[in-house]
Design goal:
Number of helices: 10
Strand content: 15-25%
Order of helices and strands: HEHEEHEEEHEHEEHEHEHEEEEHH
Number of strands: 15
Number of domains: 3
Largest sheet: 5 strands, mixed
CATH architecture of the largest domain: 2-Layer Sandwich
Low-confidence stretches: none
CATH topology of the largest domain: Alpha-Beta Plaits
């Protein structure tokens, strides 16, 4: 019987990754659709993704699939053919794709069963998130961005917003997506009759966020198709200006992806401009924070003198 989970230690996996430099595609995709038996679906995904040397993180639930993965370039077309034919709902699913050369940004393949593919915390049984906002792509985003009658709302966590966002985008200050959904309705109550554009990293959060806004009476709700990643790819493809400022936070070993030359965030310790996120080297702390290269040396990759003393 095939082993359907990783059996190698994380330490060994990380070591192997650093010894193996290659060219990869970093992919993200999601789809909301009903999965009758998530465990069976999960096991088939795991077995087949292994065949294509895929690493990354995939969540499966009754409500669909959410994936962030890496794959060797020479395996991509065969994988894409498999995915499109694996389930009718995945046929021609949109895949956000980024080229990466060097160490793999993931070090294992993790396919997990979840209650939700993204935790929204919504308990209202009348809410139907299929009624979503209007998709817009780079050309229309750029046009609406400087329209005084349009409001942009960033639906990412505060640490994501800190290193990069669209100019004048409203931050819904929070640590989790479910907290944002609790607050955004009250914060934006004044704008029920205004045009609202919502965005996130790859689009999945805004599928529910725009629907949640419409459910609460907001009339003109849009969201950026496939998120910041989709916006950047579409703008590059069509040779349009990119107005996103700073870096896009990503949930892999890179931590961030530079979008523009602007550095709009600051080192936690010396307050100089930096967009470099790290986790505190003291494992009992492991705080995620911004640290410049000089302070990384001075503080030994720790967030404080107290943590240095406990390494």
């Amino acid at each position: 019987m095939a082993v359907l989970y990783n059996r190698i230690s994380r330490k060994e996996l990380k070591k192997n990754i650093f010894l193996n430099k290659k060219s990869y595609f970093i992919l993200s995709f999601y789809k909301y659709f009903y999965i009758k038996t998530p465990q069976d679906f999960r096991d088939e995904i795991y077995k087949n993704f292994l065949k294509y040397n895929i690493l990354g993180r995939i969540y499966i639930s009754h409500e669909g699939i959410n994936a962030q993965i890496s794959i060797p370039i020479n395996k991509y077309l065969n994988f894409k053919n498999f995915l499109f034919n694996f389930h009718p709902e995945l046929n021609n699913i949109f895949i956000n794709k980024t080229y990466h050369n060097g160490f793999n940004v993931f070090f294992l393949l993790s396919v997990k069963i979840k209650k939700y593919i993204i935790n929204d915390g919504i308990k209202n049984t009348l809410f139907n998130f299929k009624n979503i906002g209007i998709y817009i792509e780079a050309k229309q985003v750029n046009k609406m961005l400087y329209d005084k009658n349009t409001i942009f709302i960033d639906m990412r966590n505060s640490y994501e917003y800190e290193i990069g966002h669209f100019p004048n985008a409203i931050q819904i200050n929070s640590k989790t997506f479910r907290d944002q959904l609790k607050h955004v309705i009250k914060i934006m109550d004044f704008a029920k009759n205004k045009k609202i554009v919502m965005y996130c990293t790859g689009g999945i959060r805004c599928e529910k966020a725009t629907s949640w806004m419409i459910f609460h009476g907001f009339k003109y709700v849009y969201h950026i198709k496939n998120g910041i990643i989709g916006y950047v790819n579409d703008a590059k493809k069509n040779k349009l200006p990119i107005y996103f400022k700073g870096s896009n936070f990503v949930f892999d070993a890179r931590m961030s992806q530079r979008i523009s030359k602007d550095i709009i965030s600051f080192c936690k310790q010396c307050k100089k401009p930096s967009a470099n996120y790290v986790n505190c080297a003291f494992n009992l702390c492991h705080l995620l924070f911004i640290q410049c290269s000089n302070c990384a040396i001075k503080f030994k990759n720790c967030c404080s003198l107290n943590c240095i003393q406990n390494i």
